[in-house]
Amino acid sequence: MTKDELRLSGVTSGYGPTVIVDGVDLILPAGEGLALLGRNGAGKTTLIETVAGRVRLQGGAIRLGDADLGRMSPSARCRAGIGLVPQSRQIFGTLSVEENLTVADLKRGWTVEAVYDLFPRLAARRANGGRQLSGGEQQMLAIGRALMSAPRCLLLDEPFEGLAPVVVDNLLEALHRLRSEHRMSMVVVEQHARLAVDLAERGIVLERGRVRLAGDRAELLARWDEIEDMLALSD
Ligand SMILES: Nc1ncnc2c1ncn2[C@@H]1O[C@H](COP(=O)(O)OP(=O)(O)OP(=O)(O)O)[C@@H](O)[C@H]1O
Ligand SMILES: [Mg+2]
């Protein structure tokens, strides 16, 4: 096992007694990207929130390098290197951009200036309230806030949802920079397979909480029609 490799073995999780994610195995080598695909309700959010510690692990194991995450609190997982950018973004509307970035007062990891270098748009808006931001700016802020804790593995839940194509391009460029300049691993949840596969060396398709298909980019591209069918019948 390489340092910082994310490894899930037989991960089962859900809400109360209900099983949503059912025996998922996956390996994400350090510095690589994984596209987590699946239609609405497949369990994508449940799976990454299980990795981040927001959903209870019912069975199986989650490791990042040597760290056994399954036994840790969400904040300990964050210190161990997991960064979550949640589907709902969850920025503080009444705080300014800069306050959103510094509220956790981590005194380590990224500086606000490094976040502004990645997202110059946020620098221009640093004194604006979270509520005054566009959807794209909110997503940049949600990513920036996750970076402040110096993640080695970033979990992004539908980061492009509801954003205009030009904003999506902007975000993609920043995420590519994180991959190339910072060697950050990434799990990108997406319903639009093309976008995620652009960022990821490998991917899995979840169906009713189970891995229906997994492969590297070439394998995914070779089975593209099948994947599109799996993702097509969203509600
Ligand atoms: N807090 C919760 N309590 C109980 N069940 C939940 C909860 N959150 C999600 N579920 C159920 O878990 C299943 C998987 O939901 P999840 O949000 O993980 O799917 P998803 O793949 O992220 O879907 P989407 O593409 O719509 O974001 C769904 O049946 C959903 O109703
Ligand atoms: Mg979801």
List keywords for this structure.
10 strands; 6-stranded mixed β-sheet; binds magnesium ion; Rossmann fold; binds adenosine-5'-triphosphate; 235 residues
What is the CATH C level class of the domain at 6-86 and 154-232, in words? Alpha Beta
Oligomer: single chain
Number of strands: 10
Determine the CATH superfamily of the domain at 6-86 and 154-232. P-loop containing nucleotide triphosphate hydrolases
CATH topology of the domain at 6-86 and 154-232: Rossmann fold
Widest sheet, order of strands: 6-7-8-3-9-10
Strand content: 25-35%
List cofactors, ions and other ligands: adenosine-5'-triphosphate, magnesium ion
Structural class: alpha/beta
Count of helices? 10
Model regions low in confidence, pLDDT < 50 over at least 5 residues: none
Report on this model:
- The chain is of the alpha/beta class.
- It has a domain at 6-86 and 154-232: Rossmann fold (3-Layer(aba) Sandwich), CATH 3.40.50.
- Helices cover 37% and strands 27% of the residues.
- The protein is built from ten helices and ten strands.
- It has helices at 44-52, 74-80, 97-102, 112-118, 120-124, 135-147, 165-182, 193-199, 217-222, 224-232, and strands at residues 6-15, 18-28, 33-37, 57-64, 67-68, 82-85, 153-157, 185-190, 202-207, 210-216.
- It has a six-stranded mixed beta sheet, with helices on both faces.
- Magnesium ion binds next to helix 1.
